[in-house]
Amino acid sequence: MGEIVFPYIANSVPSVKKRMMDEIGIKSADDIFAEIPEHLRYKGTLNLPKPLLSEYEMRRHVEGLLAKNSSCEDHLSFLGGGTWQHYVPAVVDTIIERDEFLTAYVGDAYADHGKFQAMFEMASMVGELVDMDVVNTPTYDWANAIAIAVRMAARMNGRKEILVDASMSPKRLAVVKNYCLPDITVKLLDFDRVQGGMNLEDLKAKISSATSAVYFENPSYLGFIEGHGEEIARITHAVGAELIVGVDPSSLGVLTPPAQYGADIVCGELQPLGIHMQWGGGLSGFIATRDEPKYVAEYPSLLFGLTTTTQEGEHGFGQVYYERTSYASRERGKDFIGTTTALYGIAAAVYLALMGPQGMRDLGLGIMQRAAFAADLLGALPGVKAPYIAAPGFKEFVVNFDGTGKTVAEINQALLQQGIFGGKDLSGEFPELGQSALYAFTEVHTKDDIRRLALALDEALAAFPQVKA
Amino acid sequence: MTARVRKDYQQARWNEPVIYELSLPGARGVLVPMPDGEVQAKAGDVLGRLPKGMRRAELPNLPELSQKHVLSHYLHLSQETLGSNITNDISEGTCTMKYNPRINEVLVGDPRFAELHPDQDEDTVQGILEIYHRFSQIIKEISGMDEVTFQPGGGNHAVYTAASVVRAYWAARGQLEQRNEIITTIFSHPCDAAAPATAGFKVITLYPDKQGIPDIEALKAAVSEHTAAIFMTNPEDIGIFNPRVDDFVRIVHEAGGLCFYDQANANAFLGVARAREAGFDMCHFNVHKTFGTPHGGEGPANGAFCCANELAPFLPVPRVVYDGKKYHLDYDKPQSIGKVRDFMGTAGVILKAYAWTMMMGAEGLRETADVSVINNNYMLAKMEGIRGLDYAFRGNGIRRQEQVRYTWEPLKNDTGVGTDDVNNRIADYGIEHYWTSHHPWVIPEPMTLEPCETYSIDDLDEYVEVIRTISEEAYADPAFVKAAPHRAASHRRNDDASLDDPAKWAVTWRAHVKKTRK
Prior knowledge:
The structure holds two protein chains of two kinds. Chain A is of the alpha/beta class. Chain A folds into three domains: 10-66, no CATH class; 76-83 and 358-462, Alpha-Beta Complex (Aspartate Aminotransferase, domain 1); 90-351, Type I PLP-dependent aspartate aminotransferase-like (Major domain) (Aspartate Aminotransferase, domain 2), CATH 3.40.640. Chain A has helices at residues 14-24, 30-33, 55-66, 90-96, 99-102, 113-130, 142-157, 170-180, 200-206, 229-238, 293-296, 326-329, 342-379, 408-417, 447-462; strands at residues 76-77, 134-135, 161-165, 185-189, 211-217, 242-247, 265-269, 285-289, 304-308, 315-319, 396-400, 420-421, 424-425, 436-440. In chain A, strands 2-8-7-6-5-3-4 form a seven-stranded mixed sheet, with helices on both faces. A three-stranded antiparallel sheet of chain A has the order 11-14-13, covered by helices on one side. Chain A is globular and about 80 Å long. Chain A starts with 13 loop residues before the first helix and ends in a 7-residue tail after the last helix. Chain B is of the alpha/beta class. Chain B has a domain at 107-357: Aspartate Aminotransferase, domain 2 (3-Layer(aba) Sandwich). In chain B, 36% of the residues lie in helices and 10% in strands. Chain B is built from 17 helices and twelve strands. A seven-stranded mixed sheet of chain B has the order 1-7-6-5-4-2-3, sandwiched between helices. Chain B has a three-stranded antiparallel sheet with strand order 10-11-12, with no helix packed on it. In chain B, β4, α9 and β5 (258-262) form a beta-alpha-beta unit. In chain B, α5 (126-143) runs parallel beside α12, α6 packs across α7 and α12 (347-383) packs across α15. Chain B is globular. Chain B starts with 36 loop residues before the first helix and ends with a helix. The mean pLDDT of chain B is 96.
């Protein structure tokens, strides 16, 4: 190979490499690769783009590509539906950019004591938010957390059917369906598209002693709050099934945690807690349960526990009930486990420590106020129904444009011209809602931002002829 | 020159309280932007309008600290953690703990990436779509496969995706009930057994022959009309390249099965050997290992799952496509397994990996491979003669590739000091705990080291000298080694049984408080 000294490869210094090869008694690395039969060797040089060897050139190149993006910082965005634009406090970024955490690996709780403690604290604080005593190390995302939770339930009660509220995120549902194959059946429960909330008659009709678990999201993917949690829990528990509820933890400063209305397993998404959206790459899920062996035994994830050390008064940490994992027991372990999203768990810990109880309450209250204010403004526009589903919501609600004669796609194009990302188009995922969009409001939105949206929508709609609904 | 050994090393040891013990009631870490008075007034009593029972009665019991105290607490915890960028992390065999460039963290922090929402109009995300597309082309060239998806969130998740694709493939042919077995090998990662099991397959595990290579006779006995696929690593966790890997593929193909190549250990074979030439139908890369992005203490990660055209219809959606002018997300794949993760996967990992690969180029990838195997063989040579240390399948005449599974069995027999003790002691020299082996320990008292291209000759010499020093300590004073660590961030746990005891384990602070109160 050539004489380039690669900054990321210390021993690419030719003289050093030669010294080492002399020590081993070889002429080149090919003498080692000779163990690979000739016909399995790749001949020639990979056809890859010409390298940008200096950091500066590479940075120019990648920043040139990033310049082709427009972000939610350049635009005013009302997109949510699974990942949301929240403010990330500077301290969160400072901590998770520390090389100690950023470049850590599995480790053990001696040299990586701090990582274990940070993860234990994440579990502890999320546990308080959801009012549960056991919280796992993060999963890939919320969808993965639901999928794991339903499989936990199926192993616990030996049943192979789950009922899920059809208002859940269709993308999360797609993940769950794949994860349930081949032996767990997923059945959808109808929901009230006018008032919001699960159709309890449909639940009663479909639930049986074959039901392993019932799952709904609160707040729902469509934004409304399910007010019949206790009744759903009663119906679910009457047949001996598990109640699994998904939450957006940013709501839990103001909304009742599902454990308090009967949820047995709670899961959700950590991204709102101090993690940048990153085009959907900022997701990180969690699962929480009561501290009962039958639940703990079914987690596939690592669980970090607090213990003692040989030093009096010193906190120690370790792996709880490790044998249940596939790391310990291969195919006999619970599902499988691997590298997931630990660093985001640390971000969530730092975020919750910064926010404290009052911060989480202020966050939730302020978001609800903004959403209510926005619903009033948007609902006053001609032909626009907001919120389209009546039940109170948290940070999102459905806006219906059927009365405007325009499609969401057309409206969003018009908004884009004004530097606004309109709500997520629901016409593909929920065609029965007509031309509807899911609008999200968080603490990043000011009164003027919301007014600007209403004004832009008004202009966009006025530019077209009105059609009576 | 004698190699350095950090004899007076002391890791930060802050005796840091759990954050709840630091709480100062009333203190605030950040204030939240509250809406304008007019917004509040017009919104009215939003909490009062909540459905009955849905208004949280009591504030969550979170700690209360000023911002400085949150910052210093987590800085203390970071100092009590050994990331690979700050230490000589040859330790993590099978994990390729290479340098994670700082510039790539700058790039993912750019708001033109960090603040992208995945449902933005395609016209506003052409940059990240182009990066996905460009990196797909790179991965296809490196693997020789036809298609790739970056949706899986890590290596194990990519293996699960493989199992899902295999399931969909056989289901599409109406043969899933018959093709219900997946074969793997004991030195393949546990996920090559666990992920297929999760996907509903029966798992058959092959053990090595006397040379340390998966037993081809056992494979011949295992394949049948029930074989859905084989999931195998090569080289396996012990660093031995299976020279008959294409025979394995042929045998499985002849039985009608599919072949998946777990390439989590691909680092030393970039531009040297590809899944394509060995005949595989599928493979995956741990993007966060091989392509220079950090582990994050177990994620965010990314598993690039690659396959041949025949299996492409089953890949998760959306697919990134290019029409010659613009990039798009294509959801119209009726045979797709659906999704394995929400949105398009861990985009930050892909951005960093793309940046890393663009700085390396084909020549840099090949240099990565070359230096990795040279480093490993240099270190193995230097380890010779360390008392109590041996390595698996010594004398089989096969040169090790990128890693070696050592064994402390002689040391254990001589002194009672086993690999777990040595592993605790190594932290006293500023080196991260090493990877022993996955379970079960087929090789007794294992230690698996992977001195990838990052590490300098001095790093290798240091590591060897630390190992030699600990061996000497074990013979001189086994009790001292068995009491290690002495200079790490915490001392040895004294009650491991409590972690398996439901009456004592505590996964959260509130559980701890409840269980210790009585």
